Amino acid sequence: MESFTGWRCFFLALFLAFSAARGQLSTTFYANTCPGLSQIVRDNMTTAIAKDRRMGASILRLHFHDCFVLGCDASILLDDVGGVVGEKSAIPNVNSVRGYEVIDTIKASVESSCPGVVSCADILTLAARDGTFLLGGPSWDVALGRRDATTPASPNVALQNLPPFFASVGELITAFGNKGLTPRDMTALSGAHTVGSAQCMNFRDHIWKETNIDVSFANLRRSTCPATAPNGDGNLAPFDVQTELVFDNGYYKNLAVRKGLLHSDQELYNGGGPQSQAALVNQYSNNNKLFFDDFVVAMKKMGSIGTLTGNAGQIRRNCRLVNP
Ligand code: HEM
Ligand SMILES: *[C@@H]1O[C@H](CO)[C@@H](O)[C@H](O)[C@H]1NC(C)=O
């Protein structure tokens, strides 16, 4: 019996070593080395969201901005140190992306239970799943085994890889296509804009200068976002005018009545043309389950963009710093 268990452990260890070396992500990656991981992340995300419900949205966006720049390798979490200016300082991130302290808190809890084994990239991926779920969205199994970057991208590389708020639908399709994501994935992932907020500077031209927008909605948003920069640049407005912090298909319902907040949002329902995503927007707006199912498929794909596995990268002790 003793030796049977011993051999079983041996083969299990061998199998795990090989699957790690093959570099595939797996839902059981930390089953032996950190069995409490998902509970810690869930508990700590519950605490964070109880304090500030928007944090569920902010962490989801943090994961997206990580994955689109060098892959899901927690490179966005690296602080600017020693003269290296990284992703945090990139235009789409600075004074905009939030939630870094929440990841620090989760990482500290995880390190105290299982020191040195769980990557910041995996923690962020789990936290984004939990943020989605805790705001009322779908849940899914997260494949794990990502490792952490040892260097961030430059602000310019980050800027080039993150789609801007003034993108056309064609540009959105290209930006997501560059990451191996289909137009359908892009349309489903954009539904994340059913939660959270944007700053006036990112939707000013859409509400003041454009015509593909509901007039009463434009007036509502104009009331807190003055026409001329820099007045009110940082003023926040919710993406979803109906249910601001509930993860549902409200985003698509809004687009169908031209109440998208960003130019890029409304581009998904822009009155037709060969690259129109309007048919899909109509389907999602009428079928929450279809949206959730497609969102999960696309989140799994996004979460595996450019991952470091096997012996690549490292397991950072502190998500803000490369190990000494
Ligand atoms: C399709 C291209 C996309 C563009 C152009 C875009 C652009 C933006 C912009 C401009 C903001 C507001 C930032 C600010 O004003 O500080 C924002 C917020 C947000 N984005 Fe996106 N985004 C896109 C796709 C995504 C995707 C794929 C996700 C996640 C799956 C996502 C999740 C979020 C969330 C949750 C927020 C609100 C964050 C908060 O309230 O803290 N976005 N996005
Ligand atoms: C994080 O989770 C752990 C394990 O559930 C718990 O002991 C700790 O108090 C939590 N911290 C916060 C801030 O929720």
TrEMBL record:
Root EC class: oxidoreductase
Domain Plant heme peroxidase family profile: 24-323
Pfam families listed in its UniProt record: peroxidase
Annotated signal sequence range: 1-23
Reactions accelerated catalytically: 2 a phenolic donor + H2O2 = 2 a phenolic radical donor + 2 H2O
Protein source organism: Brachypodium distachyon
Site-annotated residues for Transition state stabilizer: R61
Disulfide bond positions: C34-C114, C67-C72, C120-C319, C200-C225
Keywords assigned: Calcium, Disulfide bond, Glycoprotein, Heme, Hydrogen peroxide, Iron, Metal-binding, Oxidoreductase, Peroxidase, Pyrrolidone carboxylic acid, Secreted, Signal
The protein's required cofactors: Ca(2+); heme b
Coiled-coil regions listed: none
Main location as per UniProt: secreted
The UniProt record lists the keyword Oxidoreductase: yes
Residues binding Ca(2+) 1, per UniProt: D66, V69, G71, D73, S75, E87
EC numbers: 1.11.1.7
Residues given in the record as heme b binding sites: H193
Domain of life: Eukaryota
GO molecular function terms attached to this record: heme binding; lactoperoxidase activity; metal ion binding; peroxidase activity
Recorded family membership: Belongs to the peroxidase family. Ascorbate peroxidase subfamily.
Function summary: Removal of H(2)O(2), oxidation of toxic reductants, biosynthesis and degradation of lignin, suberization, auxin catabolism, response to environmental stresses such as wounding, pathogen attack and oxidative stress.
Active-site residues annotated for this sequence: H65
GO CC annotation terms, alphabetical: extracellular region; plant-type cell wall
GO biological process: hydrogen peroxide catabolic process; response to oxidative stress
Location(s), subcellular: Secreted
Protein name: Peroxidase
Binding-site residues, substrate: P163
Gene3D superfamilies: 1.10.520.10, Peroxidase, domain 2
